[in-house]
Design goal:
The chain is α/β, with parallel strands linked by helices and 472 residues long. 23% of the residues lie in helices and 21% in strands. Strands 18, 19, 20, 22, 23, 24 and 26 form a 7-stranded antiparallel β-sheet that branches.
């Protein structure tokens, strides 16, 4: 590791679960809005100067989290780092090859130095279930016999890194193709907890220690809308600190339904969409239909739907960044850009506007409130969704493709309301005529219900209405 990097691993406050169990916060109680990028394969494909370039780009765009994998054979069957060092000796997870892991240490330390938290996945699901999505069959490297020991080793290795959160799974359901692997994942979690805490823990026993070792699970997409959330498989287990769903890369998925179900459930835990539709990912189309790809609007609406429904943050992904595509691996079909080119795609740039409005408007002081809207839209692309503060002084309404919506003012206090339009495509405020404006439109002597029409409407024309009670 480069001299001096290790000292940065402890500079960030550890994250914890908030008292109301709806979001993450730092150790001093400051709410933390999770805004992550998907870079699963960074260790296997990027060298030091490339890692620096990547992290600088993401920092400029407002990201504060990176999701990566320690052992990932999907794009790197031999599991080597960018310098050719294999992760394991003899492909044995109990025989780590130190040069590989030192480089992973360095990446995590570099990220900490720049203010990034890491969601670290110890092993991609392929290593547990023994197959991939292309009918390839492989040895099962992690089993009930060695999962706890491997987990203990990696948990202990990163026990002092205050910027790490843990994620099990790796694009696989715990019950995969008819076989139940839940005990493998439980033993892996148990080992991580013991290694990180330095004391004995049991996956099925409640302990205060589990509250500070934040572990989640990465499922895959499913035809059952409930089953693409980790809460479907591990609803109340002590080791599971927060829940993840993968709404995935299909065109129409109601991620907000799974988010909302967990948010309003008794005994709920924080939840977020950790793998939504990736920008530039190819959408499945009918035979003979022209290929289509998830664009920036598809990315934005999936993000805002989940946040308005109760997610504690969001993770962005790009089809060519998660696997770090280079010129040699571009295929012109799904991998249409190099990872460097894809870093600046519109959807990635616009995530900073999402984080900005959530940070400046004290997002975690509000809660979902669909009751403020006059109707519910069954058609996703015209969906409107709302949050407001319990004291009625502030509300935020997301219009997926613009349009007109009646808003029930009985959920707000006061007689004067300031209304502003926020454009999630450029991060600026506009008036009702569609002109950029820093001024507000004031509604005086309000009615019980008021109709609002967005400055523009149609595909890609999403808007956010900000309503604030004017001080009297």
């Amino acid at each position: 590791m480069e001299e001096g990097l290790k000292i940065f691993r402890s500079n960030l406050s550890r994250l914890r679960i908030s008292k109301n169990k709806h979001y993450l916060e730092t150790e001093d109680g400051t709410p933390f809005f999770w805004m992550a990028d998907t870079a699963w394969t960074i260790a296997g494909h990027l060298k030091r100067e490339e890692v620096e370039y990547y992290l600088d780009n993401r920092k400029e765009k407002g990201f504060n989290g990176i999701q990566i994998v320690a052992l990932d054979p999907e794009t790197n069957p031999e599991m080597r780092n960018a310098y050719g060092d294999k992760a394991l000796v003899g492909d044995d997870v109990l025989k780590p090859n130190e040069p590989y892991w030192e480089y992973l240490d360095e990446i995590i330390a570099r990220a900490a130095r720049k203010g990034f938290y890491i969601l670290l996945l110890p092993a991609w699901g392929e290593l547990i279930v023994g197959d991939d999505w292309f009918d390839g069959i492989f040895p099962k490297r992690i089993t009930e016999d060695n999962a706890e020991q491997y987990g203990c080793w990696i948990g202990k290795r990163y026990a002092d890194y205050t910027n790490i959160l843990w994620c099990l799974g790796g694009d696989r359901h715990p019950v995969h193709r008819g076989e139940d692997y839940r005990m493998v994942w439980r033993k892996l979690a148990q080992g991580i907890g013991q290694g990180a805490a330095g004391k004995e823990l049991k996956w099925d026993k409640t302990s205060k220690v589990w509250e500070r070792i934040l572990i989640t699970y990465h499922p895959t997409i499913s035809d059952d809308p409930d089953a693409f959330s980790s809460s479907f498989y591990f609803p109340e287990e002590p080791w599971m600190a927060f829940h993840m769903l993968q709404s995935g890369h299909r065109e129409y998925v109601r991620n907000y339904a799974a988010i909302g179900a967990e948010y309003h459930k008794a005994g709920h835990k924080p939840i977020w969409d950790g793998e939504p539709n990736y920008e530039d990912w190819k959408i499945t189309v009918m035979p003979g239909e022209k290929p289509r790809y998830h664009d920036a609007w598809n990315v934005r609406k999936r993000a805002y739907w989940s946040l308005m429904a109760g997610a504690f943050g969001h993770t962005y992904g790009n089809a060519c960044v998660w696997c770090m595509t280079d010129e040699a691996r571009k295929d012109g079909d799904v991998l249409t850009y190099t990872w460097q080119e894809a870093l600046n795609r519109p959807g990635a740039t616009q995530m900073q506007y999402l984080k900005r409005i959530m940070d400046t408007r004290n997002f975690f002081a509000s809660e979902p409130c669909q009751e403020m809207l006059g109707r519910l839209d069954n058609y996703l692309d015209i969906r409107k969704t709302c949050r407001r503060t319990p004291d009625g002084r502030y509300a935020m309404i997301y219009f997926t493709s613009g349009g007109t919506e009646p808003v029930e003012f009985s959920f707000l206090c006061g007689t004067q309301i300031e209304a502003r339009w926020y454009n999630p495509r450029d991060g600026k405020f506009y008036n009702s005529e569609g002109k950029e404006s820093k001024k507000v439109q004031i509604i005086i002597n309000r009615k019980q219900r008021e109709y609002f029409s967005t400055p523009s409407k149609g595909r890609g024309m999403d808007w956010i209405l900000i309503l604030t009670t004017k001080e009297e």
